[in-house]
Write a sequence for this structure.
């Protein structure tokens, strides 16, 4: 399959100059168990401008799977004794985070990670360098107005991620990107970064460019990568982190969706989550907190069956969830990603001891905001990868 992709991709790029047909979108799927991984699908072109074929571990913006990585970093700091899931986040920040209608009710990391804090995205969730996260959180539009934090209904809110990341910075004294590298990427031998910060130029040059279904560039072409500015910057601000103070506005690292990582490296994280505590990089406490959060998760939220601390549950039998990705009746945990024409996922079958890390690009946008569910393109990719892996194992 790899050899075929190498031959076809340049031909497709050459033909496109005549037929105006776009080069095939990039798709990668890595299937793994606790110790090994296979690469059944590596297809398409990572950069249509150059015709460069995609490779298995080319870095790609994985969108909301970044929230699972953020949750794991949070639990690592819990394990280090630097944060508590049930503590008032204001205690770490040095300024008050309060729902305007419930000034006496604290906001906690647990609420934020489970999308039960009352935060919503109506005020926007990108806070550029030089602007104030504290000010953004004081806007009434940033909050669900019908219930206090903790009692608010589940509402998937990207704005909670910059707040979590800023709390982690304040508690540890570390910049968010460096904290993620210390607690997760470096110990697992992973090369990855947030908004390309800290990654080598060679790594950035191997990026998967994200395209819309119509062929236009959405993110991460050469103009959107180093040495150009890769973080949101306010008017009149220099694109420099030299004077950035950890614990003030970690939105600049896009913790809600800005991780760039290859599928082989993402699979490494999945492998550690599949292992028992005595074999895993993650401690028994970290793994236990993650699983406990799933047990306490609200059920039947949006298209998936439950949402814990930065982790989703899908395809639980008899739950009536609109979340058929694998279609084999086995429940899985992990996280989905969707942004800029990309669909991605990291999903674990804990009972079977297997998982998959994948992405597919140039997927059409949803036809309605509440459409929900997985895209046909990613369903087809995942099921084909499963079938190919099963056949290879016979």
């Amino acid at each position: 399959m790899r050899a075929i992709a190498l031959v076809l991709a340049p031909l497709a790029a050459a033909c496109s100059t005549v037929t105006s047909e776009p080069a095939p979108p990039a798709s990668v799927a890595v299937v793994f168990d606790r110790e090994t991984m296979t690469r059944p699908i590596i297809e398409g072109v990572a950069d249509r401008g150059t015709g460069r074929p995609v490779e298995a571990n080319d870095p790609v913006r994985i969108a909301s799977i970044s929230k699972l990585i953020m949750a794991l970093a949070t639990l690592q700091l819990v394990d280090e004794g630097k944060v508590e899931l049930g503590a008032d986040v204001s205690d770490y920040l040095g300024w008050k985070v309060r729902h305007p209608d419930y000034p006496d009710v604290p906001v906690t990391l647990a609420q934020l990670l489970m999308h039960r804090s009352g935060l919503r995205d109506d005020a926007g969730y990108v806070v550029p360098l030089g602007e104030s996260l504290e000010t953004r959180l004081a806007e009434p539009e940033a909050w669900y107005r019908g219930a206090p934090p903790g009692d608010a209904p589940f509402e998937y809110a990207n704005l909670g991620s910059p707040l979590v990341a800023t709390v982690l910075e304040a508690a540890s004294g570390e910049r968010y990107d460096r904290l993620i590298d210390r607690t997760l990427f470096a110990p697992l031998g992973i090369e990855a970064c947030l908004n390309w910060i800290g990654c080598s130029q060679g790594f950035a040059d191997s990026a998967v460019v994200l395209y819309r279904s119509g062929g236009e560039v959405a993110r991460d072409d050469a103009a959107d990568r180093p040495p150009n500015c890769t973080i949101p910057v306010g008017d009149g601000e220099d694109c420099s982190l030299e004077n950035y103070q950890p614990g003030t506005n970690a939105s600049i690292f896009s913790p809600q969706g800005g991780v760039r990582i290859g599928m082989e490296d993402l699979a490494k994280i999945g492998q550690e989550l599949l292992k028992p505590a005595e074999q895993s990089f993650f401690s028994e406490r970290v793994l236990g907190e993650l699983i406990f959060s799933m047990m306490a998760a609200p059920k039947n939220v949006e298209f998936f069956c439950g949402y814990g601390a930065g982790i989703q549950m899908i395809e639980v039998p008899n739950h009536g969830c609109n979340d058929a990705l694998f279609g084999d009746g086995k429940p899985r945990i992990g996280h989905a990603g969707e942004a800029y024409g990309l669909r991605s996922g990291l999903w674990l079958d804990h009972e079977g001891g297997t998982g998959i890390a994948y992405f597919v690009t140039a997927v059409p946008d949803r036809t309605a905001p509440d459409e929900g569910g997985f895209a046909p393109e990613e369903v087809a990719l995942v099921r084909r990868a499963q079938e190919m892996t099963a056949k290879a194992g016979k």
Q: What stands out?
A: The chain has eleven helices and 15 strands.
